Structure prediction request, 393 residues.
Amino acid sequence: MSTRVLPTIGGGVEERLTRALAMRWPWIGASGALLIAASAQAGFDDRFLTSIAIVVPVAFAVRFPRTAAVVATAAALGWFFPQGYPIPVAAGAGLMVVYGVAAYRLRAVDIGVVGALFLVNAVSPFNGSDAGAATYLLLAVVAGALGFGRLLRSRSAIISEHEALAVAHMSALREHLLLTDRTAIARELHDVVAHHISHIAIQAETARYTTPDLPELAATRLAAIGESARTALTEMRTILRVIRSPASQPEGTGRGQPESTLAPRPGLGQLDALVEAARGHGTPVAVTVGGPAAPIPADIDLVAYRVIQESLTNARRHAPGAEVDVAVDRAPGLLRLTIHNGSRGPVGSTDGTGLGLVGMRERVEAVGGTLRHGPVPDGGFTVVAELPLRQDR
Prediction:
């Protein structure tokens, strides 16, 4: 149970007061001070015993509000030490503190029971004395303390609700800004990248039919270039559709159109097509698949496909003509990918930004996997990715 009594409000005196009242020592000190004041007014007669039973609960009212309210009620109504009214002023102040804290912390039904007891006591005192101004004054004091505690509780609830609304507003604003940025990125990608890829596809197809005496191998390569460009355009348009409009995401993400409106995400099921495309570009590829067949989560399947795809692209760029070995090993709870290419060819490109490897690492780490890559003694390059298949990753 929380030890806060006042609502948490940032800044100023109120915040410092809230922190102070959250500790136990201020309450113990207040209880002691009220007890001294009660003894100074009432001496050490029966009213002082009643004052003790009323004031001591102030020390633990925050931690045990129900117990404090029960003890203070029994003492104020004369169930412990029957005597006439009025009780000492300090004891009345302690009674207000106990009921203010109780009204803030307890349920409405508990507060209703306390108020009903003092209402009955005002009309017919439980200690056997006659009803009078003192009993009605006691009722007014208790009702005021209970009302103040409930108002403070309502204020705290309103402030918490406002804070939650502010957080929700900021979250909605961030999401709106994110969607705006995504739309701008999608527009730039479509206007720049799609434009140039379309030109590549058109020029490759045009070259096949306008170049006289074109060798068969060159025609095959140009056809492969055109096909790769068209595939890239198709995948990019699918991604751009999702970026531009989150409502176009498939069902299962909680938004929009059915999954059939989008092409299926690539995975290891398309590994053969990916390898054939690499071979068509002049890269000899050998594939080894080991381990028991087991279902692979969709996100892991996509990451595995992208890792192999990026590795084949890097091998073609930096070691053209070198043989590439792709090993896919399934172990219990783990999918291991090993892609190794031989030494660089004589015309291999050595420049590059390295963003492909960075993106590969980000994809792998996003699903809880690990990625290692680097040159090997034979002059080649190896990429090893380990992807967890656990559902609780």
